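Bug: token stream looks shifted between consecutive jobs. Job 1:
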Amino acid sequence: MGIKGILAAFLKGFYHSFKGMLVITRLDKESNERRSRHSPTIRQKHIDGEDSPNTPRKKENSKVIIKVMQCAMLNGGIFLLSVLIFEYVLLPGLDKLFVFLFGDETFLNKVIWCWIKYILLLIYKTLWLVPMFIISKIINAFWFQDIADSAYRYSRGRPVSFPSISELFADSIFSIFVQILFTIQANLINYILLHPVGYILYMVQLTLLHSLYCFEYKWFNMGWKLHERLAFIEAHWAYFIGFGLPLTILTQLSDSLVISGCVFSILFPFFIISGNEASPVMDASDVQLQFFSLVIAFANTFFSNVIGSRQRHQSTSLSSAMVYQTARVQRR
């Protein structure tokens, strides 16, 4: 289709990425209506002895919107707000207080404030930042999965199960490993190549990675193995670059990894829903961007040489080079 087709796929992906913010309200409304149709009436409940006829029925909220609100409260209302208050209110406020008490350039002010700031940062990071980061990551993982599974069941039905628990575990571990390697690859390209070429390729890879994050829950529930998921993204890269661009830009606005992580965790549930509802453009280009090929080859080599024998490697990685190449052709 040429440049015009690539641009159209990119713009459609960009548009689809925002659909989750609109779809979530519709999912909640339709979920409540569906419950109302299948729930017994107040009168029937009274006859069955379940409730009093004068007891008002509480409006039931869908699981999706509840989890999204919980994510926003944990990551934005608690974690992000505490970081902003400490870094941009408490520390600057104490700095100005010491300037007022001891003067700006006095030796006493510099020494005392240097030590107090160091102690405060140590206490803050040790007792709050690190534990909160770990706890939020664990909670977010469960909430993201709940949001994805609930949205998938509502719009697409029952998820497809993996053949075995061992394959499920192996696919998950291998996927995480590949994502880590891909992040390292993107950063290396950014540092090695000259600006702006390196930065553009860095951003392109981040958009693909963020698209993988958003669609992986859906594809996982559809029973797709990792090599199928990666091959599909490489084959239809124009759409996925557009889809992943908004989340990539929003998480790159701050230089702080903590703040960027909080922003990601607040917005990510909406993009999960967008990915669940989206229908990728599949005929934009015949060219495949093979950004994942290097990390797949490295990951295969690592699991085969470090973890165990070739037989274990085959059951762990779930994707040899031949299967990976075949999947890329099939998904075109």
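Job 2, same session, no restart:
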Amino acid sequence: MKKVYIIISTYNEEGSVGMLTQSLEENLSTIQNCSYELVFVNDGSKDQTFVKLLDLQKIYQNITIINQSKNFGHELAMTAGMNYAVEQNFENEYAVLFMDADMQHPPEVAAELIRLWLAGDSLVLTKRTDNLDKGFRYKMMGNLYYWILNGISDVKIPRNMPDFRLLDKKYVLWMSSLNEHDRMFRGMLSLIGLTNATIINFEAPKRFAGQSNYNFLNLYKLAIDSVIQFSVKPLRIASLIGFLGCVFSFIFLTVSVYINFTNNEPRTGFLTLLCITVFFSSLTILFLGVIGEYIGRIHIQVKNRPLYFNDVIKKK
């Protein structure tokens, strides 16, 4: 029998996991010829999420808890769940469905993803038509983010397509073969290819409980990771600007010498020299920072450390 592993990453979601589990059980119970397992990845929650999950495991038969030793981040939480599915069911036919625990990924849509997979679709993605929990400013910033990202990245990442998706075994094995420490699932999947994807639209409702765990610093890190993981264009842009800066400096120097000789006016040029020095020194520091980002990630990757540490807790 086919099986679906529903990977649910949770971080401080004590108010949502109970309702999510109940709603998933109601929506998935009508699906025939397919079993499923709810794999909750507790990503170092600081509230009572882990206790709530243990209580739910006593009630429901098909819940597995992956308890991360600390908060490794959303991407690695999904990786931990995906790797668990690979280890458990390597030879049989299965799929992995990723979703969040805040109820903004509707359980009824999750059931629809599974039905499409059973009908023969091997890669089923979702596209968010609206997010009732976010305002106009968030949507504008999101559009700007994707415009910049796809402008300087070698891998094009579709906008408004969250990590709410179902992957057949073939895609799961491809994704698990990518041995990267800094991960962005959307970019990794685009790197593999989306030509055979089926896309269904959905409207994200407001969070059932709690607040979003993504602050400005999290989003900033995600933006930096998105660019650096899939492109070397920032390095090329830095080289181009450096070259143009050298040309500009040469032209400016030539013009300054010409004016001094033709007008016979003694000029110290101190302010001009100071401005140029500060400008190009700032560019140098900026470009060194870009290069440092790449070197830092190489430094971390070559250590080949484990991506995460966790305990897998199954129902006894």
